[in-house]
Structures are given as C-alpha cells and as structure tokens.
Sequence to fold (339 residues):
Amino acid sequence: MSDMSYLSAAGLSSVGSPTLWAVTIAGVLALLVLDFLVTRRPHEVSMKEALGWSAFYVALPLAFGAWVWARFGSQQGVEYLTGYLVEKSLSVDNLFVFMLLLAAFAVPTVLAQRVLLFGITGALVLRAVFIALGAAALQTLDFAFLLFAIILILTAVKLLRDALSGHEQEVDISKMRSVRLLRKIMPVTNEYHGTRMVIREHGRRTLTPLALVVVAVLATDVVFAVDSVPAVYGITEDPYLVFATNAFALLGLRALYFVLHAALSRLVHLSYGLAFILAFIGVKLGLHWAHGIWTGVPEIPTLVSLGVIIGVLLVVTLTSLRATRRTGPGEREVVTDRT
Fold:
C-alpha cells in the first residue's frame, strides 16, 4: 500500500502529493542555503535588514496559505493558517530561550545570526522526525490523539506553574548536560574564533565556545519539538500541512530575533497565553478522540480554534505591554537543566 493510500485508510488524507512534498522540501532547503550564504560573512544585523527579511518570511507563508486555500479549499486553508499561527507563537517562546543562551555564552553580535541559523536548522530536522513519528502514531494507535492531548495539557500545566511561581532564572550553562558532556570529550577555548567551531591549539583539536552554544541551542530544540508537533496535529491531521506550518514558522526566526530582541523581554504574559493555547488544543484533541468513540461528543471547529488563538495572543500582548509600561521589562522563568 502506498503512503498516500495508507494515510487515507487511516483517516489522515494529505493534500501533499509526492511531487508537492518534493517541491516543498527543495524550497525549504533552498531557503536554508540562502540564509547560510547571507550569514557566511559575520556582521551586525541592521534593523533595516532584519525588517526586510522578516517581511519576506511573513509574506511567503501567507502567500502559501492563500495558495492552499485556493487549491484545496477553505477547510485546508483555515487549518494551515491556524496551525501556522500556533507554531509561530510557540517559535517566539523558542526565540526567547535562544536569546538567553546567546547572552549566557556571551556570543558576539556578529555571530548571533549564525548561531540562530544552526538552531533553526536543527529544529527543522527534529520536527520533521517528530512529524513522521506523529503520523505513524496516528495511523497505528487508536489512542494517539488522547496521548497528544495529555502531552499538551501537561505542558500547559508546567508553563502555567512556572509563570505563576514568579522565580527569575537565568541560563546556567555549567548545569546543562549537553555542555558538560561536550567539555568532557574535548577541550574548549576561552575565546571565539569567528564562525569556526573547531580549531587546532597546542597541537590538539579544540572546540570553540561557538560549538558549545550551537549544541546547547540544538538540545533545547528537542524540548520544543515535543511540544509543538502535537500542538499542530491538534489543528490538522494532514502531515504535509503540519510540516509546512513548522517550516514556515521556523524559517523566519533568524531575522525576527533582531526585530523582536528588545520587545521579547516585554512579553511577560506570553507564558500564560501559550499555556492556555496548549491546554485548549489539548482539550480539542481529547474531544476529537472521544468523538471517534462516542459520536455524541462535540468537536471544536478549526475556525473557532483560530478565533480563540488570535484572541488569546492579542490579550496577552496588550496586557504584557501595559504591565511593562508601568513596571519595566520583566524576566520569564526558563528551565534549561534538561539539556
């Protein structure tokens, strides 16, 4: 049985034909190569450059969404746009952790976008793996939707607990397991050497701090992939749309970082909003699972989900800006000892 027919038999019909999958993956790879070419010469990113690339990476997914809507219908179009909005929201939280890591490792400004690009590439690879595993789970496990719902609700509870605790915490790189392991394997220099991650010093191959920060960023990608993939599967069961929303949400993070760098610390209520969104999608998934067993159980339409997500993001943004206007930017707790 072909992949497409297998998906259809499992109730996971996909808008992505093999040709469309190939074209999309090739397009994502081309954009990654373009970003690496742009960052091949370390330089400080101007606001004009960051805004230009950010506008491009906002226009591109919106244009793609319009094409999906015109080509496959309003249902798929709404699913794509809602999934993209969820993934973009979660990627902003991802970006905040990247900001803390760059500060903790004292990454030179001229190297920041190269580190971000490695993080984005790692996130894309990891999410592709999790998307494939998620599709396989939905095909073979009757309770997969319930499992995803539990993961999202538990994540929402943790986010809410961390936000309510009000504990300020900075990244402690000495406690990160990935960094400790790397330092045991190879020596590390005290200074950055441009974009080089390995140099020869005193006759030995030695890592630079750039290698450590890249590994730390990649390690955090694993945590975010576990949360984000079930979230978007709560919006659409189509693996192609899941991949597209993740890819477009991540590709623009390099430029968005420099646009939002100052504003990120002001989004003090973002964790509350993300906790609500993840819990809402978890409930949506739970109802979807229950509806498959008891048809009388209602389901939450995707269009309603889109309205709820937009409303929550608007509320937490406005309340964050109002709170920080009175008290100044605050700190959000970020737990990194799992990496």
